[in-house]
UniProtKB/TrEMBL annotation, chains A, B:
Single GO biological process annotation from the record: glycine biosynthetic process, by transamination of glyoxylate
Keywords, sorted A to Z: Aminotransferase, Pyridoxal phosphate, Pyruvate, Transferase
Native organism taxonomy: Bacteria, Pseudomonadati, Pseudomonadota, Betaproteobacteria, Nitrosomonadales
Protein's recorded name: Serine--pyruvate transaminase
PROSITE patterns registered for this protein in UniProt: AA_TRANSFER_CLASS_5
Positions of post-translational N6-(pyridoxal phosphate)lysine modification: K198
InterPro entries referenced in this protein's UniProt entry, alphabetically: Aminotrans_V_dom, Aminotrans_V_PyrdxlP_BS, PyrdxlP-dep_Trfase, PyrdxlP-dep_Trfase_major, PyrdxlP-dep_Trfase_small, SP_NH2Trfase/AEP_transaminase
Cofactor(s) the protein requires to work: pyridoxal 5'-phosphate
Protein family according to the UniProt entry: Belongs to the class-V pyridoxal-phosphate-dependent aminotransferase family.
Residue numbers binding substrate: R347
One GO molecular-function entry: L-serine-pyruvate transaminase activity
């Protein structure tokens, strides 16, 4: 055995995440490690909480990054809020609603599924009907921005309906945070989780979460202990909470937190609303190019998520061959389909640092070549120009 | 709000972890992020598994890093192996045995505690007695190297006893991996977890684990699903397993894995046995200095863990003031006591990259000054010389 240091290539990350990471974030990851109880580190934690509150648009005291990827952020919400026997309405319109169901059931809860077509927003009327049919439901859970399809749901309305029926609302914001309008306090979301490797353009591995006072009350009044020791917020709060003395719970992922701190500083410098606008504008430019080629979006305009563009693979095209050309000849990663959409769609991400004009033009030019070589029935040589017109507009 | 980039100080980390991180590992953390399904990344994952097998001295196929800190590695072992109603013998001789009990109970298991004095190795006879009294026990769990006290237990013997009574053995190797002899296959350990921020000298945030074939059989034959979706090895193996096509489970913490890969390459370059010997030799030098000052170790010589030196705080000394002098005047972090030992001991780590002569001398010189200013009843001006004699020997 003689394994050597690993030197990854420099890719352009336009898949469903991770997205391109800013050199500033990478530089922050490499700063000297200090202790997780060092007073200087505790100051950084306080700043981190303030920055996350800004990104989530919330004053929730319990706002912090879980020390593990978004899937663990999801599980943190469910294990803390769902008690055995609790009925949870889960709206599913893609892969991640299915994962919510798994979480509910592993907590001993009863998941009532409300199914919508993949590639469409969650239908508020169906949620309303489900809640009327299940007056004993305690929680509603849905995905704000479905990474598997690129559909954006109306979180504000869905939370309102949940509250009208005395339910708490758990929201998956993995792909929306930082990229699309998201207002935790104004929309009265009770529990929300996200990831770092999408529109925040940090490296993967952490999961920002936030919990309302109402959610905290439910956690504090649980009859049974939280089944996960690692994710038990009653314990985690001893470290991340506002107490003068932070109690050791687990060793925080110090350098990953440096990276997230820097990513959030960058977001603050740009301004949250400016970031939302940038994601939307760049989406329109990419869309113009893709549509000029004759490619079709999976999601109708009104439900479309700007940072995740799912397009149908043209008939007869070897989709793996196309992605391999992009990766090997252009160092460009786009995403394959996931779950029921595997083999049917490509997912082109325009997230965070990756959402910029240069990436759009490179992606369209590379796709033009790759689709040509794959003999796809598309219009060649028009995509870049169409995108540039929008970018200039 | 105008939060700026965070620039941590350059500390010397001689607490219970994190330990000093090699500049090579920090540089690796800052390399370009690539996708978690990128073929180049999958090659790195295969190398990572080979390197971890080397560090654990195992051929276990299921050897990989959990995407979260050591506490989640512990929980991964318990949630996968403990089913509701399972009786688990937990040997406790410090803080982390207590955490194991929490894990067992949150899995619906029955924890039978075998208590040993804090600062002493686990007594094999007590385990034997507990197993005779509990013939229905299914699992034995213990901590190989107790980070809260610096006691090293005889893992080989304890596992043998567990097997004689038809139990699987779960071993906490958070502080031993890379620093003290640890032979997973030869000792027939069934499930083991560690951390990255101790003797591997990587940043915190990942937890290497390994499972024997016997452990895997128990996981596959479970009657109830694993209560954690994130930690369910049946699912995680789809990504980390040897299959030609890696299935997406969660987004791997890419850059943290770069860091661990580099830390393991460094371990391989040094040689595992050489690393064990270095930790032992440096411990003896530090010990000579501390004892020359008149400071006393908590753990008797035969049970002593070289990489975690717990010493009793001299009477009448303001222990917080001493640690503050070390941190503020010398940029040196040592650890406070934890749990029942809070306020009674200091914990001086000599782990991984931090286990070197320079750190020993700086630490002893700084302690000499700080204890002098704290008017501690110690012998001044002798510690450095005593350590140097051992280092030269």
């Amino acid at each position: 055995m003689a394994i050597k240091s690993f030197h990854p290539p420099q890719r352009i990350l336009m898949g469903p995440g991770p997205s391109d990471v800013s050199p500033r974030v990478l530089a922050a990851m490499a700063r000297p490690t200090i202790g997780h109880l060092d007073p200087v580190f505790v100051t950084m934690m306080d700043e981190m909480k303030a920055l996350l509150k800004y990104a989530f648009k919330t004053e929730n005291e319990l706002t912090m990054p879980v020390s593990a990827p978004g899937s663990a952020g999801m599980e943190t919400c469910f294990v803390n809020l769902v008690e055995p026997g609790d009925k949870v309405i889960v709206c599913q319109n893609g892969v991640f609603g299915g994962r919510m169901k798994e979480n509910v059931e592993r907590c001993g809860g009863i998941a009532v599924m409300v199914q919508d077509d993949w590639g469409r927003a969650v239908d508020p009327q169906k949620l309303e009907d489900a809640l009327k049919a299940n007056p004993d439901a305690r929680i509603v859970a849905f995905v704000h921005a479905e990474t598997s399809t690129g559909a954006l749901s109306d979180a504000k309305t869905l939370v309102e309906i949940a509250h009208q029926h005395n339910c708490l609302a758990i929201v998956d914001a993995v792909t929306s945070l930082g990229g699309s309008p998201l207002k935790v306090d104004e929309w009265m979301i009770d529990a929300i989780y996200s990831g770092t490797q999408k529109c925040l353009s940090c490296t993967p591995g952490l999961s920002p979460v936030s919990f309302s006072t109402r959610a905290l009350e439910k956690i504090k009044s649980r009859k049974s202990p939280v089944q996960s020791w690692f994710m038990d917020l009653n314990l985690v709060m001893g470290y991340w909470g506002g107490a003068a003395k932070r109690a050791y719970h687990h060793t925080a992922p110090i350098n990953s937190l440096y990276g997230l701190h820097e990513a959030l500083v960058i977001l603050q410098e740009e301004g949250l609303e400016n970031s939302w606008a940038r994601h939307q504008k760049n989406h329109l430019a990419l869309r113009a190019g893709l549509e000029a080629m004759g490619l079709n979006f999976v999601v109708p305009v009104k439900d479309r998520l700007p940072q995740l563009n799912a397009i149908s693979i043209p008939d007869g095209v070897d989709e793996v061959a196309v992605r391999n050309i992009l990766l090997n000849d252009y160092q460009l990663e786009i995403g394959a389909g996931l779950g029921a959409m595997a083999g049917k769609v490509w997912r082109i991400g325009l997230m965070g640092h990756a959402s910029n004009p240069r990436n759009i033009l490179v992606c369209l030019a590379a796709l033009d070549d790759a689709l040509g070589r794959a003999k796809a029935p598309v219009k060649r040589g028009v995509a870049v120009d169409a995108a540039q017109k929008v970018l200039a507009g």
